[in-house]
Amino acid sequence: MAEAIGSEMSSGSSMSDKSAKIFVAGHRGLVGSAIVRKLQQLGFTNLVLRTHAELDLTRQADVESFFAKEKPVYVILAAAKVGGIHANNTYPADFIGVNLQIQTNVIHSAYEHGVKKLLFLGSSCIYPKFAPQPIPESALLTAPLEPTNEWYAIAKIAGIKTCQAYRIQHGWDAISGMPTNLYGPNDNFHPENSHVLPALMRRFHEAKVYGAEEVVVWGTGSPLREFLHVDDLADACVFLMDRYSGLEHVNIGSGQEVTIKELAELVKEVVGFEGKLGWDCTKPDGTPRKLMDSSKLASLGWTPKVSLRDGLRQTYDWYLENVCAANK
Question: Domain NAD-dependent epimerase/dehydratase, which positions (predicted)?
């Protein structure tokens, strides 16, 4: 058991068998769909996928039955209830309760039914509101959380600790990865509750379509943010499943910072909006800087491959083909 607890790197390749049964929980979301694409690209042929209608992960008995029947070898847990500040404030019981149920059910059933390895995915919101920048893994639980999403964050922290507890008590290979801000195909482009990057993309696109002269963005544009293309995250997830077996969670970031102003100008260019970009400096900027320290992942041998410009182009193509085409 001591080896399982302390080892940073697994001995050799864990996922060499391309026919091994892999359960990707949450395969229709931004993250899960990218992981499925990556596994298929790599030649994995035995993916087990269930929609929410087919398997409600909050129902313990149903999850137990699923694992007893399917007996996957590997599990990647990308299923979660997610939302913005407004949703977290309005439905705190859902954000803590549903996520705790999903995690507890899947992790326990995976262990009970002989899963070889599990990867739990969280979020950078697990870290304190005033964490040091860049944020190292060691910043976890060192200070108070951001109040606006603490319900979701506490559930995700519990997921990390659950994986650690099963490793310590049972010597079971459960690991956790914490991604930075993500974007890419299957992102949420909803006009009211999407994140900054897809929101900007939608606004510039609609301004171009309707011939608007100017797009005005909240704040000064000075805050620094980090973005990772979801295909890079999927690549990192497979890398960690294959190569990492440590107790501590691992940050998954691009290591590249961009100001909101630079991001807006880049999205404007990719979309092809030729009007003006304005700033409403009476509106709040939010946290001045948010960057994850991903040096641990880099030291293991993984680096991102998709540049922000290329990633934005690909995401805009997907938006045109899927969101815009669906709305016609």
Answer: 22-253
